[in-house]
Design goal:
There is one protein chain. The chain is mainly α. The protein is built from 7 helices and no strands. The radius of gyration is 18 Å and the shape is globular.
């Protein structure tokens, strides 16, 4: 198989995993935490990184006509941080590897491949094989494992402590309460 064809196959797999994982995590966090899912479910540094990436792209890309949620900017390292913070609620995804350390390594491998594809560097046969195997396991996890707390009541909202870091973004997007700027 020519390297470009291999990269196209790899791109389809990486894109499907990344896209479905973003959606599943966001929907799971919305069920768990309600309208404040991004405050309670995302590590603060991940939230700040995603908003910064969105704002950076928005300042450069004047061709974009479709609204992008800030979760659309989450990469595999961001998603693994979110999963690690909420591991008890996403057991199906956490079970994609036999240990948290190996899952972390797998997500980093996925991100390296995402990066290689973005730089038009060839994906090897062994990398494509890894992607195919991980993709099958990922699909199975998506089908078989609902959010751990689907049958439970969502946790009580966390009290919001006043801090300098809260509320420094005006509007994270539609459906989010507006925040004041400190």
């Amino acid at each position: 198989m020519e390297w470009l064809e291999q990269n196209i196959d790899a791109y389809r797999i990486v894109s499907e995993i990344l896209g479905q994982l973003r959606i599943a995590i966001r929907e799971g966090l919305e069920r768990l935490y309600g309208d404040e899912w991004y405050r309670d479910g995302l590590p603060e540094e991940v939230f700040e990184r995603l908003v910064a990436a969105k704002e950076r792209e928005k300042s450069i890309d004047w061709y974009e006509g479709q609204y992008q949620q800030f979760m659309d900017y989450a990469t595999f390292p961001d998603l693994i941080q979110i999963l690690e913070q909420n591991a008890e609620h996403f057991r199906g995804f956490v079970a994609l590897a036999p240990s948290p350390a190996l899952l972390h390594a797998r997500f980093l491998e996925l991100d390296v491949m995402r990066s290689k594809l973005g730089r038009a560097r060839p994906i090897s046969e062994s990398e494509l094989s890894f992607l195919g195997t991980f993709h099958l396991r990922f699909r199975k996890a998506m089908e078989e494992t609902p959010l751990a707390s689907d049958s439970d009541q969502p946790p009580a909202p966390k009290p919001q402590a006043a801090s300098e870091n809260q509320g420094h973004y005006k509007n994270p997007g539609p459906g989010f309460p507006a925040q004041s700027v400190h």
